[in-house]
Amino acid sequence: MKVIVVAGTQAGSGKTTVAVGLMAALRQRGLRVQAFKVGPDPLDPLLHEAATGRPSYTLDGWMLSREYNLTRVARVADSADIAVVEGGETLFDGPDGDERGSAAHVAKTLGAPVLLVLDCAAHSARSAAAVLKGSLALDEELAVAGVVLNKTKSRAHEESFRATLAGPSPKTALRGVPILGAIRRDDAHAGALRDGLPASPPPPPKPRSRSAPAARGASAADGAPTAGRRTRGSSRARASSPASPRSSRGSSATAST
Protein backbone atom coordinates (compact mmCIF):
# COMPACT_ATOMS: atom_id res chain seq x y z
CA MET A 1 0.00 0.00 0.00
CA LYS A 2 1.21 3.49 -0.85
CA VAL A 3 1.26 6.35 1.67
CA ILE A 4 1.75 10.06 1.05
CA VAL A 5 1.83 12.95 3.51
CA VAL A 6 0.44 16.37 2.55
CA ALA A 7 2.09 19.15 4.55
CA GLY A 8 2.41 22.93 4.38
CA THR A 9 5.38 25.21 4.82
CA GLN A 10 3.33 27.25 7.31
CA ALA A 11 -0.09 27.46 8.90
CA GLY A 12 -2.77 28.59 6.48
CA SER A 13 -0.91 27.40 3.40
CA GLY A 14 -3.96 25.47 2.18
CA LYS A 15 -2.83 21.91 2.86
CA THR A 16 -6.38 20.86 3.81
CA THR A 17 -7.67 22.05 0.44
CA VAL A 18 -4.94 20.14 -1.37
CA ALA A 19 -5.28 17.01 0.80
CA VAL A 20 -9.08 16.78 0.47
CA GLY A 21 -8.91 17.52 -3.25
CA LEU A 22 -6.30 14.80 -3.70
CA MET A 23 -8.41 12.30 -1.78
CA ALA A 24 -11.48 13.06 -3.87
CA ALA A 25 -9.52 12.89 -7.14
CA LEU A 26 -8.02 9.50 -6.27
CA ARG A 27 -11.45 8.18 -5.30
CA GLN A 28 -12.91 9.37 -8.60
CA ARG A 29 -10.26 7.29 -10.34
CA GLY A 30 -11.63 4.20 -8.66
CA LEU A 31 -9.06 3.90 -5.86
CA ARG A 32 -9.92 3.10 -2.27
CA VAL A 33 -8.47 5.98 -0.25
CA GLN A 34 -7.82 5.93 3.48
CA ALA A 35 -7.33 9.29 5.19
CA PHE A 36 -5.35 10.15 8.30
CA LYS A 37 -4.73 13.39 10.19
CA VAL A 38 -1.60 14.29 12.16
CA GLY A 39 -2.69 15.51 15.57
CA PRO A 40 -6.18 15.89 17.03
CA ASP A 41 -8.57 17.90 14.89
CA PRO A 42 -12.38 18.12 15.12
CA LEU A 43 -13.12 19.27 11.57
CA ASP A 44 -10.60 17.98 9.03
CA PRO A 45 -11.46 14.28 9.54
CA LEU A 46 -15.06 15.09 8.60
CA LEU A 47 -13.84 16.60 5.34
CA HIS A 48 -11.67 13.53 4.76
CA GLU A 49 -14.64 11.24 5.24
CA ALA A 50 -16.75 13.29 2.84
CA ALA A 51 -14.02 12.98 0.19
CA THR A 52 -13.15 9.30 0.67
CA GLY A 53 -16.36 7.73 1.95
CA ARG A 54 -14.37 6.20 4.82
CA PRO A 55 -13.72 7.37 8.40
CA SER A 56 -10.48 9.27 8.97
CA TYR A 57 -8.12 8.38 11.82
CA THR A 58 -5.60 10.29 13.90
CA LEU A 59 -1.85 9.77 13.89
CA ASP A 60 0.25 11.49 16.52
CA GLY A 61 3.98 11.20 17.14
CA TRP A 62 3.75 13.20 20.35
CA MET A 63 0.95 11.43 22.25
CA LEU A 64 1.18 8.03 20.54
CA SER A 65 4.13 5.69 20.21
CA ARG A 66 5.87 4.86 16.95
CA GLU A 67 4.59 1.28 17.13
CA TYR A 68 1.02 2.43 17.67
CA ASN A 69 1.09 4.72 14.62
CA LEU A 70 2.56 2.01 12.41
CA THR A 71 0.05 -0.56 13.61
CA ARG A 72 -2.88 1.80 13.13
CA VAL A 73 -1.94 2.55 9.54
CA ALA A 74 -1.35 -1.12 8.75
CA ARG A 75 -4.71 -2.21 10.18
CA VAL A 76 -6.95 0.65 9.08
CA ALA A 77 -5.53 1.01 5.58
CA ASP A 78 -5.23 -2.71 4.93
CA SER A 79 -8.23 -2.66 2.58
CA ALA A 80 -7.24 0.61 0.86
CA ASP A 81 -5.18 1.23 -2.26
CA ILE A 82 -3.52 4.37 -0.93
CA ALA A 83 -3.37 6.32 2.32
CA VAL A 84 -3.28 10.13 2.34
CA VAL A 85 -2.07 11.72 5.57
CA GLU A 86 -2.77 15.40 6.19
CA GLY A 87 -0.09 17.00 8.35
CA GLY A 88 -0.46 19.46 11.19
CA GLU A 89 -0.04 23.22 10.92
CA THR A 90 3.59 23.17 9.75
CA LEU A 91 6.03 20.65 8.38
CA PHE A 92 8.73 20.60 11.05
CA ASP A 93 7.22 21.93 14.29
CA GLY A 94 5.72 19.69 16.94
CA PRO A 95 3.72 20.73 20.04
CA ASP A 96 6.89 21.33 22.08
CA GLY A 97 8.67 23.24 19.33
CA ASP A 98 10.87 20.31 18.32
CA GLU A 99 10.34 17.67 15.65
CA ARG A 100 8.38 15.19 17.76
CA GLY A 101 4.77 15.07 16.66
CA SER A 102 5.30 17.12 13.50
CA ALA A 103 4.25 16.13 9.99
CA ALA A 104 7.88 15.47 9.10
CA HIS A 105 8.22 13.19 12.12
CA VAL A 106 5.17 11.14 11.14
CA ALA A 107 6.28 10.99 7.49
CA LYS A 108 9.67 9.59 8.47
CA THR A 109 8.03 7.13 10.86
CA LEU A 110 5.84 5.81 8.05
CA GLY A 111 8.60 6.03 5.45
CA ALA A 112 6.28 8.16 3.31
CA PRO A 113 7.14 10.97 0.90
CA VAL A 114 5.81 14.49 1.45
CA LEU A 115 3.76 16.60 -0.91
CA LEU A 116 4.66 20.14 0.13
CA VAL A 117 2.10 22.95 -0.24
CA LEU A 118 3.50 26.45 -0.75
CA ASP A 119 1.40 29.55 -0.06
CA CYS A 120 2.20 31.81 -3.02
CA ALA A 121 0.09 34.63 -1.60
CA ALA A 122 2.41 34.89 1.40
CA HIS A 123 5.73 34.98 -0.47
CA SER A 124 7.37 36.55 -3.46
CA ALA A 125 8.97 34.13 -5.89
CA ARG A 126 12.53 34.42 -4.58
CA SER A 127 11.40 34.31 -0.95
CA ALA A 128 9.44 31.17 -1.76
CA ALA A 129 12.60 29.67 -3.25
CA ALA A 130 14.43 30.39 0.00
CA VAL A 131 11.67 28.76 2.07
CA LEU A 132 11.62 25.65 -0.11
CA LYS A 133 15.40 25.32 -0.25
CA GLY A 134 15.49 25.56 3.53
CA SER A 135 12.76 22.94 3.86
CA LEU A 136 14.71 20.56 1.62
CA ALA A 137 18.03 21.14 3.34
CA LEU A 138 16.90 21.07 6.96
CA ASP A 139 16.30 17.33 7.18
CA GLU A 140 18.08 15.08 4.69
CA GLU A 141 16.10 12.06 5.92
CA LEU A 142 12.82 13.62 4.81
CA ALA A 143 11.73 12.75 1.28
CA VAL A 144 9.86 15.56 -0.50
CA ALA A 145 8.17 14.16 -3.58
CA GLY A 146 6.95 17.43 -5.05
CA VAL A 147 5.57 20.90 -4.53
CA VAL A 148 2.11 22.36 -5.12
CA LEU A 149 1.86 26.10 -5.70
CA ASN A 150 -1.26 27.26 -3.88
CA LYS A 151 -3.11 30.59 -4.01
CA THR A 152 -1.55 31.86 -7.23
CA LYS A 153 -3.16 35.13 -8.28
CA SER A 154 -2.88 34.81 -12.06
CA ARG A 155 -1.18 32.92 -14.83
CA ALA A 156 1.67 35.44 -14.83
CA HIS A 157 2.02 35.08 -11.05
CA GLU A 158 2.25 31.30 -11.38
CA GLU A 159 4.80 31.51 -14.19
CA SER A 160 7.03 33.81 -12.14
CA PHE A 161 7.15 31.18 -9.39
CA ARG A 162 7.79 28.35 -11.82
CA ALA A 163 10.59 30.23 -13.55
CA THR A 164 12.30 31.14 -10.28
CA LEU A 165 12.00 27.69 -8.73
CA ALA A 166 13.08 25.88 -11.88
CA GLY A 167 16.27 27.90 -12.52
CA PRO A 168 18.40 28.62 -14.43
CA SER A 169 20.21 30.08 -11.44
CA PRO A 170 21.52 27.28 -9.19
CA LYS A 171 21.00 29.56 -6.19
CA THR A 172 17.23 29.52 -6.60
CA ALA A 173 16.55 26.33 -8.54
CA LEU A 174 15.06 23.33 -6.72
CA ARG A 175 16.92 20.53 -8.43
CA GLY A 176 15.16 17.18 -8.43
CA VAL A 177 11.92 18.32 -6.75
CA PRO A 178 9.17 18.85 -9.33
CA ILE A 179 6.34 21.35 -9.19
CA LEU A 180 3.37 19.03 -9.53
CA GLY A 181 0.68 21.65 -9.97
CA ALA A 182 -0.71 25.07 -9.14
CA ILE A 183 -4.04 26.13 -7.68
CA ARG A 184 -5.48 29.51 -8.52
CA ARG A 185 -6.90 31.59 -5.71
CA ASP A 186 -10.54 32.46 -6.40
CA ASP A 187 -11.46 35.44 -4.28
CA ALA A 188 -14.98 35.47 -5.69
CA HIS A 189 -15.62 32.13 -3.98
CA ALA A 190 -13.43 32.67 -0.91
CA GLY A 191 -16.50 32.15 1.25
CA ALA A 192 -17.55 28.93 -0.45
CA LEU A 193 -19.15 26.41 1.85
CA ARG A 194 -17.46 23.22 2.90
CA ASP A 195 -19.33 19.92 2.81
CA GLY A 196 -22.21 21.58 0.95
CA LEU A 197 -23.78 22.83 4.15
CA PRO A 198 -26.05 25.87 3.79
CA ALA A 199 -24.75 29.19 4.92
CA SER A 200 -25.74 30.41 8.34
CA PRO A 201 -28.76 32.70 8.02
CA PRO A 202 -28.03 36.37 8.60
CA PRO A 203 -29.04 37.72 11.99
CA PRO A 204 -32.59 39.11 12.08
CA PRO A 205 -32.82 42.90 11.79
CA LYS A 206 -33.08 44.76 15.02
CA PRO A 207 -36.58 46.11 15.77
CA ARG A 208 -36.84 49.80 15.04
CA SER A 209 -37.65 51.73 18.19
CA ARG A 210 -40.25 54.42 17.58
CA SER A 211 -39.06 57.50 19.38
CA ALA A 212 -41.41 60.33 20.27
CA PRO A 213 -40.68 62.42 17.14
CA ALA A 214 -40.96 59.34 14.96
CA ALA A 215 -44.26 58.38 16.59
CA ARG A 216 -45.67 61.86 16.03
CA GLY A 217 -44.54 61.72 12.43
CA ALA A 218 -46.15 58.34 11.98
CA SER A 219 -49.42 59.57 13.47
CA ALA A 220 -49.45 62.55 11.16
CA ALA A 221 -48.78 60.32 8.21
CA ASP A 222 -51.71 58.12 9.22
CA GLY A 223 -54.04 61.11 9.18
CA ALA A 224 -54.46 61.47 12.95
CA PRO A 225 -54.28 65.13 14.12
CA THR A 226 -51.44 65.89 16.50
CA ALA A 227 -51.36 68.20 19.46
CA GLY A 228 -50.92 71.85 18.53
CA ARG A 229 -51.66 71.21 14.88
CA ARG A 230 -54.87 71.90 13.01
CA THR A 231 -55.69 70.02 9.91
CA ARG A 232 -57.72 71.43 7.07
CA GLY A 233 -60.43 68.84 7.55
CA SER A 234 -60.89 69.59 11.27
CA SER A 235 -61.18 73.36 10.67
CA ARG A 236 -63.77 72.80 7.95
CA ALA A 237 -65.72 70.52 10.25
CA ARG A 238 -65.85 73.13 13.02
CA ALA A 239 -66.92 75.86 10.62
CA SER A 240 -69.80 73.82 9.21
CA SER A 241 -71.12 72.47 12.53
CA PRO A 242 -74.45 74.09 13.76
CA ALA A 243 -74.36 76.44 16.74
CA SER A 244 -75.55 75.16 20.08
CA PRO A 245 -79.04 76.17 21.34
CA ARG A 246 -77.56 78.32 24.14
CA SER A 247 -75.49 80.38 21.78
CA SER A 248 -78.49 80.78 19.46
CA ARG A 249 -80.69 82.19 22.20
CA GLY A 250 -77.98 84.60 23.21
CA SER A 251 -77.60 85.94 19.73
CA SER A 252 -81.42 86.34 19.37
CA ALA A 253 -81.63 88.36 22.59
CA THR A 254 -78.93 90.66 21.45
CA ALA A 255 -80.67 91.22 18.14
CA SER A 256 -84.00 92.06 19.81
CA THR A 257 -82.52 94.69 22.05
Written overview of the protein:
The chain has 257 residues and is of the alpha/beta class. It has one domain (2-187): Rossmann fold (3-Layer(aba) Sandwich). Helices cover 39% and strands 16% of the residues. The chain has 9 helices and 7 strands, in the order βαβαβαβαβαβαβααα. Strands 3-2-4-1-5-6-7 form a 7-stranded parallel β-sheet, sandwiched between helices. α1 packs parallel to α2 (44-52) and α5 packs across α6 (155-166). Residues 190-200, 224-228 and 247-257 have low confidence and may be disordered.
Name the CATH class. Answer: Alpha Beta
- The number of helical runs is 9
Mean pLDDT over the full residue set? 77
What's the CATH architecture name?
3-Layer(aba) Sandwich
Query: What order do the strands of the largest sheet run in, or round the barrel if closed?
Result: 3-2-4-1-5-6-7
CATH homologous superfamily identity = P-loop containing nucleotide triphosphate hydrolases
How many extended strands?
7
Structural class: alpha/beta
What is the topology?
Elements: E1 2-8, H1 15-28, E2 33-38, H2 44-52, E3 57-59, H3 66-76, E4 82-86, H4 103-110, E5 114-119, H5 125-138, E6 144-152, H6 155-166, E7 179-184, H7 212-221, H8 232-240, H9 245-256
Parallel strand pairs: 1-4, 1-5, 2-3, 2-4, 5-6, 6-7
For the structure shown, list the relevant keywords:
single chain, 257 residues, alpha/beta, Rossmann fold, 7-stranded parallel beta sheet, 9 helices, 7 strands, globular, disordered C terminus
Quick rundown:
The protein has 257 residues and is of the alpha/beta class. It is built from 9 helices and 7 strands, in the order E-H-E-H-E-H-E-H-E-H-E-H-E-H-H-H.
